[in-house]
């Protein structure tokens, strides 16, 4: 029988006996390699699910296992046997295989690939391991909490200094309730993440599924979205995410404008075939945002935008931000946001 691997994470065995280990921490290089692999796996999974959705009635990104089990027994069998096979043959030393895009021609092949991907995610420690790697990446010795820059900017912002009440903030993609945005005392923070690591303090929620506000009480003065947009696998959904910001922000009041803090990996704006800073600012301007601050660090770029309100938004139909080539060259990445 194949040797059972401990995956990349060294941690304690689960006391619940379900085989999932409680992740502890990772060395920086291993954390980076695990994050990269998870990004690839999650992106491939998203591509497959997008193709499967029109073919399997009722299937979505969250319910696909139950949906296949209940409505497509043969496809479920294929998915499940590939998943089990992958787990049984896992040695922990497999090369990071790229997905063969030919699988997307055939439903059977797609669910088989989905099974393999889910098997690999499980073998590498599950989403818990990924979240630990991401949190370790936030550690000050490895780049730190990006909201420190936001607070520095706000502290020197004259408009902000006039505010003597506590502001409301939404932190999307929150890994820790101890980030500067939560501890600085300026905000009452609502924290959400796709995979909460602390459900008492961080709500497990996809921002794209968060019900749109029906009153100003459900809106915010600040949205923080650090290293999340690049995590969203689809360029179209990234654009929708930016649009949704406008629905969650308070309208300007007494000369005060709500704000959005965005962080992206630098190559998204410096080395993409389809995107650059000018295009980003164009999109944001169409949505009624105005750039207040910008800072380029070695690996990431930070922006602070203020929102001029729904009256400043231009009709989306007027502005076709499509996926068109801006920079040519073989070494470019494909990051893009469309609206
Ligand atoms: C790379 S981490 C960045 C975390 C942290 N904000 C930082 O700056 O280090 C991205 C996080 O965003 C979360 N995320 C991605 N898409 C999301 C969505 N649609 N709604 C909520 N959280 C999301 C992921 O679960 C992940 O924890």
From TrEMBL:
Region spans: Disordered: 1-26
Known EC number: 2.1.1.-
InterPro entries reported for this sequence: Bmt2/SAMTOR (IPR021867), SAM-dependent_MTases_sf (IPR029063)
Pfam family, one: Bmt2
Taxonomic superkingdom: Eukaryota
Record key words, sorted: Methyltransferase, Nucleus, S-adenosyl-L-methionine, Transferase
Main location: nucleus
Binding locations of S-adenosyl-L-methionine: 173, 193
Matches recorded under SUPFAM superfamilies: S-adenosyl-L-methionine-dependent methyltransferases
Record keyword Transferase present: yes
Similarity-based family: Belongs to the BMT2 family.
Name of the protein this chain belongs to: 25S rRNA adenine-N(1) methyltransferase
